[in-house]
Automatic annotation (TrEMBL):
Cofactor(s) of this protein: [4Fe-4S] cluster
Protein name (record): Radical SAM core domain-containing protein
Native source organism of the sequence: Phocaeicola coprophilus DSM 18228 = JCM 13818
InterPro entries associated with the record: Aldolase_TIM, rSAM_sf
A molecular-function term among this protein's GO annotations: 4 iron, 4 sulfur cluster binding
Source taxon at top rank: Bacteria
CDD domains the record matches: Radical_SAM
Amino acid sequence: MQINGPAPDVLTFAGNGEPTAHPEFAGIIEDTLALRNQYFPAAKVSVLSNSTFIHKKEVFDALNKIDNNILKLDTVDLDYIHRVDRPTGHYDLNRLIERMKDFKGNLIIQTMFMKGTTDEGVDVDNTSDQYVLPWLEVVKQITPKQVMIYTIDRETPDLSLRKATHEELDRIVNLIRQAGIQASASY
């Protein structure tokens, strides 16, 4: 790539699964940073994470070294989390939030907003103030360098789920910006 191009802008860890779950994640990040520095020093290193392993010191330390530490926080409503995200095992939202604060701004929060109902008819619209305002208060406490919001991009297994509208996402972005935090929306 150095000879023939193109030079990468960003080296991103993402995909079907949680990158930070890999037992050698910290070493992989160290190797990636060394190779990036040697071959493409202008490239950024990004990790898209669901935040479940940030309590592990080696994961936290590795994420703190990269350019774009992108952590999911879809809501701060535990009932919604259990209904929609369905974490397995023990899930401690307060511990996760406190650990996000420990990054001292060296993170980007990524949040998905959507509408619709589950197959059982349960409302999963998290675009209302009932969900947005408490989430925003926590985001302000975390002090991320940026917030990226988005909505459903492709068909989901539950066909009753729908995209949040441009207007709803724009309203949320404006609230984030009014709080003094850089924000963007993907429609």
